[in-house]
Design a protein that fits this description.
The chain has 882 residues and is α/β, with parallel strands linked by helices. Helices cover 47% and strands 15% of the residues. It has a seven-stranded mixed β-sheet, sandwiched between helices. Strands 3-2-6-7-1-8 form a six-stranded parallel β-sheet, with helices on both faces. It is globular, with a radius of gyration of 32 Å.
């Protein structure tokens, strides 16, 4: 395994697989799980990685085992032999699979006193409007004139100034030294001297009335508005009658003096602007430390100051570094320079080390679409060059079918090397329509007619307002509500919102605060009468999952969203940890839980995939860039802040290059957004473009239809009006007798987790790992008692003599199944299905086991027979099923 390695992974090429395989390889060559830091950008990605690691260690698929063997140098047989022990060690370890925000947050929690912040700080965003009001109140009187002047320069409302200051705050740690922004006097007099010479010459010369109107000005702003400003010469139709070469001499003197005027004005404005920003920042920092309410960027800045600018930097890094042996970094192209600088000394230590410590990162600069919030794709190659890291490539696309992969390769020539499709077939339809919504409706109608379920279809748009337009259209034409990102999010469901509000109330009360708003939100969502004296009787010393379980039981909040929130909380250690993580909790309910066509923005679609995808053109005009400054980067270094004055590029060659570079970057951003959109499609891709002013114009997409539309039916209702969604918890765990999906009652999750816990104990025989995983979810004493009694039953011991295979998966006649325990006894196979309690009617369980028996008899023809048993653990009854 290469200690220092990077992977450039195009969309759908298996970067998560690569991360998981490398993590597993590290475990098998001796790394402790607690010394491997795996960094992701979303909780969803972190959760997916943890689940894949657990799944692979529980039962390692052949392709994973092959990759781990390749990386570790071990034989597959040796890997399988050591897997159970490594699995147990993994379950007992304090895992560091987390978001970059969580890692930075943990540093501040550990060293908060050094940053001047109390240990009881909370993560809570403050509304920009609210804080800007506070800033205005605290602004020194002498700076009000500067603020008004800056507002006039922007020609915008106050909120825009707040946004601009927040942008500076975002980039604060990258800004060049402010000593450069000294105040200098500036005047337009020198430039106007040459402009007035031109005016006098034209008014007194042999020129047309049109030409004389073109010199009707009194100040430089009016000059700049004239159509001739920026031309190389006055020798064109408007001025040709009386043109004299001296006019061009004056014109270019005007340009040179205007460029000097702009340079001096830039220095003046930057001095004023940063003086205002420093007041804004000082007010913000004082407020943050006074209230103890920090948000993600505040935490990042404080940690940066700790780890990069304080005398005890080496001490802190020593404390951190001693616990990190390996770093795995996902979506590296979305890392900001500030975030990278926090990690940089640790990476330096690893790169310089002669030990087995390692650094590995994956990403795709073609999917870099977060430059607007600090993502710096140049870091991908910068880090590789700086540390001499080899960059590999993943060339196979496992997501999209061949027609879509070939289209993407042709359309985006920067996909190098071109991707190879793993799956054949696929369908592409590029439509041109004056009314994009009608064309979208036709595409949806075609998909529904072919048998697609609503939950298999997604529509990507360019902003949140367009989601509403699509929703209104779909409702009017089809009578269906759409499934939006917010509607699907677990944290937006009533039960989960109530539980989060309750946890915030617990935190507020424990800190001596009233928490009135949290109390009101919880009681309202929980359906309880409002009581101003209500106080949650939940100890805050418990782990978050335990606290949530108490609340779920006490207030009857059992449903799918509550269960997912509970599962999300299991690895979290304390209430502070929970309240931080839940701010970025993005998990959504499964598609079947939120019916309807999914409609979301391109940015929200990143990391997702859809069976059938419609990508819409803009439904209106896009936003023009009105930022008053340009951040001029040289690689990853912010070398200058430039003011974007009107037509400055026409007179200032240096600024023209800066502007050209910025426009090129904006073009790359636009290209990357469309690349991300198209590569979400799995089976069919429908692109709707306008004949003019299309967001796809730069791609020169011809109208085309390629391939055959094929739909995998999933048995969902297709053309019916939909009822409001009712969420009930479903058992996604061990096998059970078939039953209608909605037959579960609200509190069935208790029995479900009891069953999962007992199965886990019977398989793993590890109480510590069981308590770590299920301690907050079921009656642990009863689960342990059932498992121990079941395992010690003499009849069970005799029956299970032989090679045991837990969780044996199979597919028979196209239907999957999982056997709880299969015992290979030579020419005889034994199937055992665990049940924690004995039902009144065993017929459904018996029928299910007969299907298992039939399936395995067909799949294992060399066995003389397959015996099947239901094992009812409450009565220790081993019931044979004939």
């Amino acid at each position: 395994m290469k200690r220092l390695y990077a992977l450039s992974a195009s969309a759908g090429s298996g970067k998560t697989f690569a991360l998981v395989a490398r993590y597993l390889a590290l475990l098998f060559i001796g790394a402790n799980p607690s010394e491997i830091l795996a960094i992701t950008f979303t909780n969803k990605a972190a959760g997916e990685m943890r689940e894949r690691l657990l799944g692979a260690l529980r039962s390692m698929p052949d392709d994973v085992a092959q990759e781990v063997a390749k990386m570790s140098g071990l034989q597959k047989e040796e890997i399988e032999k050591r897997r159970p022990d490594i699995f147990r060690k993994f379950l007992r370890s304090d895992l560091k699979v987390m978001t970059i925000d969580k890692f930075i947050h943990q540093i501040l929690r550990k060293f908060c006193w050094y940053a001047g912040v109390g240990s009881d700080f909370v993560v809570e965003a403050m509304a920009k409007d609210e804080f800007f009001e506070r800033f205005l109140q605290e602004l020194p009187e002498g700076q009000y004139g500067d603020l008004v002047a800056f507002a006039r320069f922007e020609a915008k409302k106050r909120q825009s100034i707040a946004d601009f200051f927040e942008l500076l705050y975002e980039k604060e740690k990258e800004l060049p030294p402010l000593v450069h922004f000294e105040k200098e006097p500036y005047s337009e007099a020198e430039a106007m001297k040459w402009a007035m010479k031109i005016k006098e010459f034209v008014l007194n010369g042999n020129f047309s009335d049109t030409a004389k109107k073109q010199v009707d000005y009194e100040n430089l702003s009016q000059v700049i508005e004239k159509g001739w400003f920026g031309r190389e010469s006055f020798n064109y139709r408007t001025f040709s009658r009386g043109f004299d070469p001296v006019m061009d001499e004056w014109l270019h003197r005007l340009y040179r003096e205007t460029a000097r005027y702009y340079s001096r004005k830039e220095l003046h404005y930057l001095q004023k602007m940063f003086a205002l920003y420093n007041s804004y920042r000082a007010s913000k920092i004082a407020h943050l430390k006074r209230t103890g309410k920090l948000h993600f960027k505040d935490i990042e800045h404080l940690v940066y100051d700790l780890l990069r600018q304080k005398d005890f930097t080496r001490f802190l890094y020593f404390r951190l570094d001693a616990r990190i042996g390996h770093i795995l970094f996902d979506e590296f192209q979305d890392t900001s320079v500030t975030q990278y600088r926090i990690f940089e000394p640790i990476i330096e230590e690893i790169a310089a080390s002669e030990s087995e410590r390692s650094f590995f990162y994956v990403g795709d600069t073609k999917q870099s679409i977060y430059r607007f919030r600090g993502g710096q794709k140049a870091l991908f190659s910068y880090v590789a060059d700086r540390f001499g890291i080899e960059v590999g490539y993943l060339e196979t696309n496992y997501r999209s079918r061949a027609v879509i992969v070939d289209f993407v390769n042709r359309t985006f020539t920067y996909v190098q090397p071109p991707q190879k499709p793993h799956k054949k077939g696929g369908y592409l339809d590029v439509l041109e329509a004056q009314e994009p919504l009608d064309a979208m409706g036709d595409a949806i109608e075609e998909l529904i007619g072919a048998g697609a379920a609503q939950s298999q279809i997604a529509v990507l748009v360019h902003d949140n307002k367009e989601i509403l337009k699509v929703g209104d259209y779909v409702m009017e034409r089809f009578g269906w509500p759409i499934a939006t990102h917010k509607r699907a999010k677990v944290s937006e469901q009533p039960s989960a919102r109530a539980l989060i509000a309750l946890m915030r109330l617990v935190d507020a009360v424990s800190n001596g605060e009233d928490g009135a708003l949290h109390r009101l939100e919880f009681l309202t969502l929980a359906g309880e009468a409002y009581d101003p004296s209500f106080s949650p009787d939940i100890p805050n010393r418990l782990r978050p999952a335990q606290m949530l379980k108490i609340a779920i039981d006490r207030y009857g909040l059992q449903d799918e969203a509550a269960m997912k929130l509970l599962e999300f909380a299991i690895p979290l250690h304390d209430l502070e940890d929970f309240l931080f993580e839940v701010e970025r909790y993005e998990e959504e309910l499964p598609p079947k839980e939120v019916e309807g066509i999914s409609v979301l923005t391109i940015h929200k679609s990143k990391g997702l995939e859809f069976e059938h995808l419609v990508v819409l053109d803009r439904l209106g005009r896009g936003k023009s860039d009105t930022n008053p400054v340009i951040f001029d980067y040289d690689g990853i270094e912010l070398k200058a802040v430039r003011m974007n004055f009107k037509k400055r590029e026409m007179v200032d060659e240096e600024f023209a290059e800066v502007l050209q570079k910025e426009r090129r970057l904006r073009g790359e951003d636009a290209m990357n957004r469309i690349y991300v959109a198209f590569t979400r499609a799995k089976n069919s891709l429908h692109i709707v473009k306008k004949p003019k002013s299309s967001v796809f114009d730069f791609l020169d997409l011809p109208v085309q239809r390629v391939g055959k539309l094929e739909v995998e039916r999933i048995g969902s209702k297709k053309n019916t009006n939909m009822e409001p969604a009712h969420f009930r918890y479903r058992d996604y765990g061990r096998q059970k007798a078939p039953a209608p999906i909605d037959s579960y009652e609200a509190n069935d999750f208790l029995a479900i987790y009891m069953g999962l816990g007992v199965h886990y104990l019977l398989e793993m025989e590890d109480k510590d790992a069981f308590l770590n995983r299920y301690g907050a979810l079921c009656d642990t004493s009863r689960a342990i008692a059932l498992a121990e009694a079941g395992r010690e039953n003499i009849a069970y011991k005799i029956l299970t003599e032989g090679e045991k295979i837990h969780e044996l998966p199979f597919i028979y006649h196209g239907k999957p199944g999982i056997v709880d325990l299969f015992v290979d006894r030579g020419d005889i196979g034994v199937v055992i299905d665990y049940k924690t309690s004995t039902p009144h009617d065993k017929k459904e369980y018996e029928e299910q086991l007969r299907r298992y028996k039939e399936a395995l008899s067909a799949l294992m023809p060399k066995k003389s027979r397959i015996d099947a048993y239901l094992y009812f653990l409450d009565t220790l009854d081993l019931a044979k099923v004939n």
